[in-house]
Amino acid sequence: MSVVTRQAWLRWVTVACGTAALCALPVVVGALPVPVSPISAEALRARILASAHVPYQGYAESIASLGLPNLPDLGGVSMLLDGTTDQYTWYRSPARWRAEVSTPAGEDDTYQAGAATYLWDYGRNLLTRIVGSQPARLPRAADLLPSALGRRLLALAAGSGRISRLPSRRIAGIGAAGLHVRATDPRTTIAAVDVWADPATGLPIAVQVFARGSGRPVLTSSFLQLTESRPALSVVTPKPAPGVAVTTAELPDVSEFLEGIGPPPPGRLAGLARTQIRGGITSVAAYGTGFARFAVIPLPGRVGAQALSAAQAAGAPLFGLQDGTDVLIRTPLLTVALASPTSGGPVFLLAGPVMPAVLQRAAEGALAGSVSFR
Q1: Which residues pair with 119 in a beta bridge?
Q2: 361 phi-psi bin (left φ>0, alpha ψ -120 to 50, beta other)
Q3: Yes or no: is domain 254-373 CATH 3.30.200?
Q4: Residue 276 has what pLDDT?
Q5: Which candidate, 124, 144, 134, 136, places its Cα nearest to that of 80?
Q6: For residue 46, what are the contacts with CB-CB under 8 A and spacing of at least 6?
Q7: Which residues lie below 8 Å from residue 49, measured CB to CB, with a gap of 6+?
Q8: For the chain, how far is it from start to end, CA to CA, in angstroms?
Q9: Which of 38-42, 66-70, 185-189, 245-249 has the lowest mean pLDDT?
Q10: Do the beta carbons of residue 147 and residue 203 sit within 8 Å?
C-alpha cells in the first residue's frame, strides 16, 4: 500500500468514524440516566399552568385516534383528531407565535400577531387576516402542541382529578418531570392524563390522554426537537412576498347569529350545573366542571337538518327520546349528540368528553325545555 493510498484510507476511516459518532449521539444522549426531579406534584402542576410566557421553538408530533366519522365541512377537524400532525412552532408569548403544519401542497401556517390572527395557505398562495373576537371556534393544529394541550388539560382537571408524580424521562434532550392526573368523576370518558414538563420552567414537552377502558393513549403529543429560546420577532410576523394574495375575513357575530334560537338554557342538565362561558353568547351553554363537562348549542332549522343528515349518513345510531329523537356519535374521548324535537324547532348539538348516558339525559332535558318554551 502506497503512502498516498494509506493517507486516503485513513482520511476515509476518520470521516466514517465521525459520521457514525454524530449519528449515534442522539441515541447515546437519550440513553443517559435522567436526574430525578425533587419537585412535588402540586408544585409541578402550578409551574406548568404558569408556563404560558415561556418562549420556545421546536418541532412536535401529535397522534390522535378518536374514530370520528368523516362529516361534511369538517374534514380538517377529522384529520386533526384522527391521524398524525407534524408541525414546527416558534413561540415568543401568548400574543406572538407561529405554527407551521406540513401538507402535501406545501405548508399551512397560523400566526398570532397581537390581536390579529393570520392564516397562510401555501397551496392557494393566500394570506388571510382574521378580525373579530373568537369566543367559539373549531380546533386547529396549534391546539395539539404539547405546550398548549398540557396547560389546557391541567386547567380543566382542577378539582376533578388526583395528581401524582411520574418517573422523569428524557424528551427532546430535556430531563422532563412527569405528572399523572387520574380522573375521579365517573361521568367523563377521560381516564387519565400524563404530562411531562421541564421542571425548571414548567413548559409541557409531552402529553398522553387515556380513555376509559383503554390501556393505550388515544391522544399523544410530544416535542421531538425543542429549544427554550425566544425566536426573532421577524419569524413570527407574517410578511407576504410579492404576488401573494392578502385578504381580510371578519368573523360573524356568533351571539347575534344564535340569538333567539330555542329557549333560554336551563340551570341544570343531566344533574350538572350550568357554568359561565366567555364571549357573552347567551344561547350557548356549558355544563359541568373538570373533565365532566359538555356544551349545548341550538342550531337553526336548515343547519340542524344538514347536521342530522350528515350524522346519520356517517352511521351514527338513532335513539328515540320522550320529546323527540337524537343521533349519537361516540368516540373513545368525545361524545356528540344531535337532539331533534318532535314538535319542530331548533336541533340541539351537545358535545363533550362525557359518557353517552350523560349526554342522552342532557338531550332529554334540552328537548323538554324546548317543549315547555313553545
Answers
A1: 110, 128
A2: alpha
A3: yes
A4: 73
A5: 144
A6: 202
A7: 151, 154, 155, 202
A8: 100
A9: 66-70
A10: yes
**What is the pLDDT averaged over residues 38-56?**
96
CATH superfamily of 41-250: Lipoprotein localisation LolA/LolB/LppX (2.50.20.10)
Position 9, amino acid = W
Residue 277, C-alpha cell as written in the block: 362561558
Which pLDDT band, with edges at 50, 70 and 90, does 82 fall under?
confident
Tens-digit pLDDT profile for residues 95-134? 999 999 987 667 889 999 998 899 998 888 889 998 766 5
Residue 243 cell numbers, joined: 404576488
Q: Give the Cα separation of 93 and 236 in Å (integer).
A: 10
The larger pLDDT score, comparing residue 318 to residue 350, is at: 350
pLDDT at residue number 373: 42
Q: What is the mean pLDDT of the chain?
A: 82
Coil, strand or helix at 62: strand
Specify which residues 121 forms β-bridges with.
108, 126
Evaluate if residue 272 carries a pLDDT over 90.
Answer: yes
CB 112 within 8 A of CB 130: no
For residues 21 and 66, what is the distance between their CA atoms, to the nearest angstrom? 40
- Strands (DSSP E) along the chain, which ranges? 56-65, 82-93, 96-103, 106-113, 116-121, 126-131, 161-171, 174-183, 190-197, 204-211, 219-227, 245-250, 268-269, 272-275, 285-289, 292-299, 318-321, 324-330, 335-341, 347-352
The full set of domain ranges for the chain reads: 41-250, 254-373
Output the pTM of the full model: 0.82
Whole-angstrom distance, CA of residue 94 vs CA of residue 116:
12
The DSSP code sequence of 249-314 is EEPP-HHHHHTTSSSPPPSEETTEEEE--TT--TT-EEEEETTEEEEEEEE-HHHHHHHHHHHHHT
Give the phi and the psi of residue 4 in degrees, each rounded to 5: -65, -45
Residue carrying the nine cell digits 351571539 = 255
Cα-based distances in Å from 153 to 49, 150, 227: 10, 5, 23
- Residue 62 CA to residue 143 CA, distance in Å, equals 10
